[in-house]
Amino acid sequence: MSLPILQSGRIILRRSLDTILFLVDILAMKFLRKRNSNAHSHLLSTFYLFGGFVPLVASKWLGSPKIDFSEEGILSKFSEKDLKFASKHLKDEGFIVLQNVLSAELCSRILKESEIIPGKTRIMDGGKRVDEQIYFNREAPAGIRFDYESSDLISSPVLQQLIFDESILRFAQNYLGSAPILDLVAMWWHTTFSTVPDKEAAQWFHFDMDRLKWIKFFFYITDVDTNTGPHTFIARSHRKLGIPFSLRKKGYVRLTDQEVASSFLPNQYKEFTGKGGTLIVEDTRGLHKGKHCVSGDRLLFQLEFTASDFGIPLPEFVLTPPVDRNSIAAEKIGKYQHVYQAIRFEGTDYPPKDGEATP
Ligand SMILES: O=C(O)CCC(=O)C(=O)O
Ligand SMILES: [Fe+2]
Predict the structure, then answer these.
(1) Number of compact structural domains in the chain
(2) 288 close to ligand 1 (CB < 6 Angstrom)
(3) Nearest ligand 1 atom, CA 288
């Protein structure tokens, strides 16, 4: 037998064994709340071999009962009919774009926040790590992507309006089919610093897969046109077998446009342009990327919710004191401890443990 066949046979065998171990990991999580440190790599192997089937069934099984969120918040401006349509579009196509979700005033307040919160220039392809915390210089950026720390974002009263918005939680829960858990809060700039798309900056096609099932909310804070780095998605690639085996088998890697091209129809490529205030909700199990910026720049704020904490352990978000116990953050963290379980109040015993009184 030739070497490549032997090698791919060995890989398939290893991934099949991983799939069995993945099922054991799920059982251990369900019945013993035990987390295997290799669970994430077992999850990836299972996805490579079988697509989304097994992770999605497992997600249903591990998910927590739905929570009765109110309809209040930034999505309340949409009618029930519009939100139903949006949820269905998201389910069928893998994304939905909602225009004018944030007011121009809120976008400009967030833009101002981006000037006073420090962050880091992300290491670029082949570059060296620069760990220095700096303020973003829009006139002279030092890299292709500039990231803010989740804990700084969570501590910002302006961004808390979005982080603790119940209409978003409700929409996320509807998609996940179980109670959401906040597992990612991010904000970053894309710039024209480099003339070629950067893998590290997520400017090549890829799928995300930290956990079993999740949903991402991308808020454009600046206006985004075809040149200023629109987020790009391949419609329907989020489906269980939406990414063909020929691409899944390459593993958890970034893919070139050419590698992706032969597997999808031209009308599946969606490039999302829109004014600041546009919201894209997307299942990033499908293939996506941030198109490389050729002029101007793009500021984007992002929230992600997951159906369970299986996979990569949840991050720890630290809310910086002083935290006003009458604030919206304190109220919502107390009320929805499951959703906000990744948030810690630095140096205090707050939030209270389950069963203790909430403010
Ligand atoms: O910057 C973008 O539009 C892509 C980001 C991305 O890949 C992600 O948030 O998962
Ligand atoms: Fe991504």
Answers:
(1) 2
(2) yes
(3) 7
Say yes or no: CB of residue 270 within 6 Å of ligand 1: no
Specify the pLDDT at position 123.
Answer: 87
In this structure, the answer to whether residues 134 and 263 fall within a common structural domain is yes
Q: How confident is the model at residue 358 (pLDDT cuts 50, 70, 90)?
A: very low
Which phi and psi (to 5°) does residue 272 adopt?
A: -95, 105
Q: Which residues are found with C-beta within 5 Å of the ion, ligand 2?
A: 202, 208
61 assigned to some structural domain: no
Residue 161 dihedral angles phi and psi, to the nearest 5° = -60, -35
CA distance 130 to 135: 13
Stronger pLDDT, 356 or 71, i.e. the higher one:
71
* 113 contacts 147 by C-beta, under 8 angstroms: no
Look up residue 161 and give its amino acid: Q
> Which residue among 190, 218, 305 is best mutated to probe the pocket of ligand 1, counting the most ligand atoms within 8 A of its Cβ?
218
**Claim to verify: residue 24 and residue 159 sit in the same structural domain:** no
Question: Which residue segment(s) compose the domain that 84 sits in?
Answer: 74-345
pLDDT of residue 124: 84
* pLDDT tens for each residue of 163-221: 999 999 999 999 999 999 999 999 999 999 999 999 989 999 999 999 999 999 999 99
